[in-house]
Predict the structure.
Amino acid sequence: MKAQKKLHKKSDWKAAYLLMSPALILIFVIAIYPVLQSMYFSLFDYKLNDPTKASTTRHYSLDLNRYLDNAPFLMADLKNDATKASGEPKATLTKINQQLTTIDNEIRKESGDRYNKVNDILNNYKTPSEKLSIVTISKSTAEAIQKATDQVTKQLKALNQNTKVLSNAKKDIGLASGLEDTLNKPNFIGLKHYAHFLKDSRMWAAILHTVVFTVISVAIEFVLGLAIALLINKAFFGRGLIRAAVLVPWAIPTAVSAMMWKYLYDGQSGIIAKFFEKIGLIHNMGTLLTTGDGAMFSVILTDVWKTTPYMALLLLAGLQVIPKSLYEAAAIDGANKWKQFLNITLPLLKLSILVSLLFRTLDAFRVFDLISVLTGGGPANSTETISIYAYKVMFSETDFGSGSALSVIVFICVAIISAIFVKLLGSDLLPEGSKK
Amino acid sequence: MEKKAGVSFYLFLIVFVFVIMFPFLWVFLSSFKPPTELYGSQAFNWIADHPTLNNYVSVFVDYPFLNYLKNSFIIAASTTIISVLFASFAAYALARLRFRGKSVILGLTLSVTMFPQISTLSPIYIILMHLGLTNSYTGLIIPYITITLPLSIWILVTFFRKIPQELEESAKMDGATLMQTYRKIIFPLAVPGIFTTAILAFIAAWNEYLFALTINTDEAYKTVPVGISMFSGQYSVPWGEICAATVVVTVPLVILVLIFQRRIVSGLTSGSVKE
């Protein structure tokens, strides 16, 4: 479609990209990059409240500060004891020392001049900075350290039980077993969070709640919204007033309307709860917010009240660009209202309908404010949607790794829903002009 | 569809408006009730026996509500200005200029409007924390642009498209440059569209909850939605204050919507070519 255009007009791509660059840069930096980052976080055991897991690391690292406070003293002691000992214990001690020296040489090699720098600082009884003292080391060295920790501790314990060669037995065993603590292990765990959530019943319940909420509320909102749009798309006295009335619920913050409805649903003083009890919809006023079904019903009702106007607004916009002349012509040809609706309104409104359904479905699927304020996901997690679950994991449990995994799951669901709609809409989704 | 409405139609409208407005009406009436009439047997009376303005006084005296309003206004207004400005440039390019990759960029913009906010929350939170921008205006304006910018581009592209191309082409033929065409022809015609976009962007930023809840936890930087949702009393939920605060937030909005709904509608229709 663009190929035909290019024939008679040259491309304005330079001006176009110049005009678009601020918007594009912003979108990349604050929307696309964070999503990728979320995906990255989800591969780590990333917990803000745990100092060893408070950042994402893929490599082993060694804290030279702690290492140099440990290994050299251990090696010196063992060397000392070895010179005094004889026979088998001497051989064991020498062997241990060799093992530790090999590791030490490897660390010196991998940390470069920082090994000596940190050592100098420590010899001056000062504390080196974290930046200087934490060095990345290879996996093999890290594994050698872990292996040595176990072996050396065991061997020293055995020596201490059977012989008296160790002059500082307690201290040396302590140092040996502490060797491993100088290591920082990578918290990269691959897809483990996802594997966990696939088997997590709370996650599946959250998905189910989200789907139930989305399907029911969007279906009701669409039917009501279309009816309202058709109704107010004609001349009548006070049309502006009606339009404003329809717009108000949509315009106020969701959190505020959720708070308002919480009052109306209240088990003691809620008028709506009282009304539902009077007409026999519920047994007693408390049912609405204290039972699972009641809470889900309340949440859906509030959403319908709040977003039907939005739906109507979108559809009304679509209705208003349908030329009135079409209806006039149809009326002259003798088409009745219903026929006009089927043959003019619906086909010309198809795009608006699909677009508004798409936006509403996605909005409903990522619902957070309404449920967070109205029920908090309760009672007993019965209205907990996937976004609420993700939020709780991230900010109540400060577990950013698995929380991010949940947020990526939301993202994937949203992508699937969008893909379905895009398939239905095809290129119609892009503004008409791409074809014009 | 032009047909004069009958009496039954107006009756229906009255019922319809009553249903939509009932929650507001009830909250409005409740906001004048003293505590004794908010709870217990009198809770379901329409009009308070002893109406009082104490709830309103309390909202501003016992809670930093005025500060919440100020924070929300500064954040939403800044977000709106930034996103509508950049969006109008981008939308003009997308609607009018010819270049490769247009549908890719449109598709990208559209997909960004569909991003679930929760999926960007943890990295944005971490970044803002490292930059020391949590509990600040900038800390919320930045993520809000994620929400309003793609939305604004999307709406504006549609608006720009509705402006008759013939005008622009004749301007080009008369030798006007790109910027002249934009300033003299497109922009004046797009004002209603830009205005509508600004209203929608402002409302989106004003109403946002998730980022506000997470990033600005300090009382001094809380916005209205988070502030109201955290109203809590010593013994029970302070419904009186909550109702009063809701009224304070809603009344200006009702007035704004009453004024602007005409503009929104005219903005939606004036751009299109009359056929």
